[in-house]
Write a structure and sequence with these properties.
single chain, 238 residues, mainly alpha
């Protein structure tokens, strides 16, 4: 299936599973938005950001670690916890989309599936982040390529929870061999929706800037990427 075919299949799944699909997506988005807002409002965050920007205005280029070093200890602890929880939540929604894509149905509880493999998902997140950062030390493009190399690791774990962290990462690397540009182009096809979503959030005066466009974009992209993973697996089997 080509990119347009994957997206057309995703739109059909949305039509077949609405409105339940949108309700589940809203629950996921509310959880993700609240967690992001908590992270933005951590103790000492405002003062830390001000110091960070002050250094930049003086012509310095402070590191992200410097930003975190200016946070209060409680803020750092909460930042770490929230940063580790978000991939677990994301994996749960990916599990839901994968089920829909395979005609297995889906329930509200599916978005919590990531917590069944909490430790493995956290380790995949940490390991892949470290690998991407190491590749980024060479040049920006090796870092970008590495980020695409490990994109399928969560899906592989969801397909077979018995697999180890490094096995999931290795298999993702194998799946993405020769396919990174294809996935990059698929990402680009959503850029217009993402820009509109950001503009709406920026313009709406909400206490919690809820991403309204994401109510459509999240299931649309989630089902498309789930279909892309299934396409890669089927191509490997064939």
């Amino acid at each position: 299936m080509s990119g347009p075919e994957l997206k057309a299949s995703a739109r059909k799944l949305i039509a077949d599973n609405a409105p339940k699909l949108f309700f589940i997506s809203i629950v996921y988005l509310i959880c993700a938005t609240v967690m992001s807002e908590f992270q933005r409002r951590l103790p000492g965050t405002s003062a830390a950001v001000e110091r960070f920007l002050e250094r930049v205005s003086l012509g310095e280029f402070p590191s992200i670690s410097m930003l975190y070093s200016n946070l209060r200890p409680s803020g750092v602890a909460l930042a770490v916890v929230l940063r580790l929880m978000l991939p677990v939540l994301d994996a749960g929604y990916m599990s839901y989309c994968l089920k829909l894509n395979r005609g297995l149905g889906g329930e509200y509880k599916d978005i919590l599936n990531g917590f069944l493999f909490f430790m493995k998902i956290m380790l995949i997140s940490i390991t892949s982040t470290v690998l991407v950062l190491l590749w980024s030390l060479l040049l920006i493009f090796p870092g970008i390529a590495a980020s695409y190399r490990y994109r399928q690791a969560y899906y592989i774990l969801l397909d077979d929870p018995e697999k180890g962290v490094l096995q999931c990462i290795r298999e993702s690397k194998a799946l993405m061999a020769g396919n990174k540009l294809e996935l990059f182009l698929l990402d680009l096809s959503f850029i217009g929706w993402i820009i509109i979503d950001v503009l709406v959030v920026w313009l709406l005066p909400l206490p919690f800037a809820f991403p309204i466009i994401s109510v459509w974009l999240t299931p649309y992209s989630g089902l498309t990427y789930a279909g892309y993973y299934s396409k890669l697996v089927n191509k490997l089997v064939l």
